[in-house]
């Protein structure tokens, strides 16, 4: 029998949800050991995200870079499924929280999860470099394995709407600036550029870094593990989801579907047919 199994009563209850994140009693709230009243007004929202996820406060410059990445991915318009879903949900009479939840629930591997995939991909290259391989060789080996095992797009590259994602070059330049000041190593920026160059050599054309790849670079530089990249994207895109849900709620439309009502879907089923008559008809 374990020690936990032997505990009963209040001791068992208090340890049921053991956490290192928050301590709370009547009149007292501490986050990672810091009194909330000392954090309020002195710690920015990006710094609070860092503290909650990592357990320690970041430097001001680390928090600034995290905030830059979060700000870059807040919205991509109503053509993005998550935004469209939030707007449609609001026309159905649900609360703004339900609209946001509906939108967040579709941020999966295809829509919203590519940043996690990109950072995992870049992390494989970083691990090979740690094992003594040069950057170009490590990137080439990872790309060889990818194209041998998978079909589709290298995570973090290309965009179905933008020939060049306008956010990515700026984010990479900002990362280079922070690396030049010693805030981050600049290693993941190098890796992303090596991947981009490696794909261009194989494809014969440049497939530029996208928002997922660029933010993955920043989150990698700041030391976040790949799974948190998806959660950070959710935090970021929730801003746009909230803005669109609120805007839609002010427009007074009801039951708004994905297409104008005068446009119907393409039907590809059986032509019109009659139900066979029963024998007694």
UniProtKB/TrEMBL annotation:
It is an enzyme of class 2 (transferase). It holds the Pfam family Citrate_synt. It comes from the Bacteria. Pathway: Carbohydrate metabolism; tricarboxylic acid cycle; isocitrate from oxaloacetate: step 1/2. One of its GO terms (biological process) is carbohydrate metabolic process. GO terms for cellular component: cytosol. The keyword Lyase applies. GO terms for molecular function: citrate synthase activity; lyase activity. Its EC number is 2.3.3.16. Keywords: Lyase, Transferase. Belongs to the citrate synthase family. This is citrate synthase (unknown stereospecificity). It comes from Kumtagia ephedrae.
């Amino acid at each position: 029998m374990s020690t936990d199994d032997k505990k009963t009563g209040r001791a068992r209850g208090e340890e049921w949800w053991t956490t290192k994140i928050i301590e709370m009693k009547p009149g007292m709230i501490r986050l990672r050991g810091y009194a909330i009243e000392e954090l309020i007004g002195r710690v920015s929202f990006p710094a609070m995200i860092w503290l909650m996820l990592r357990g320690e406060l970041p430097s001001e410059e680390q928090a600034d870079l995290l905030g830059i990445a979060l700000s870059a991915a807040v919205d991509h318009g109503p053509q993005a499924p998550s935004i469209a879903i939030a707007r449609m949900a609001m026309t159905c009479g649900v609360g703004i929280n339900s609209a946001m939840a509906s939108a967040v629930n579709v941020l999966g591997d295809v829509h919203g999860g590519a940043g996690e995939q990109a950072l995992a991909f870049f992390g494989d290259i970083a691990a090979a470099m740690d094992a003594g391989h040069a950057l170009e060789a490590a990137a080439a080996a990872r790309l060889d394995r990818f194209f041998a095992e998978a079909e589709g797009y290298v995570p973090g590259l290309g965009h179905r709407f933008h020939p060049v994602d306008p956010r990515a070059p700026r984010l990479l330049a900002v990362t280079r600036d922070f690396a030049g000041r010693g805030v981050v190593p600049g290693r993941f920026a190098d890796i992303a550029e090596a991947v981009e160059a490696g794909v261009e050599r194989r494809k014969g054309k440049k497939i530029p870094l996208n928002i997922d790849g660029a933010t993955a670079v920043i989150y990698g530089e700041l030391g976040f593990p790949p799974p948190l990249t998806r959660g950070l994207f959710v935090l970021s895109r929730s801003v746009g989801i909230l803005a669109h849900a609120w805007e839609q709620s002010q427009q007074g439309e009801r039951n708004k579907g994905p297409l104008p009502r005068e446009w119907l879907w393409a039907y590809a089923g059986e032509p019109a047919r009659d139900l066979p008559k029963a024998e007694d008809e």
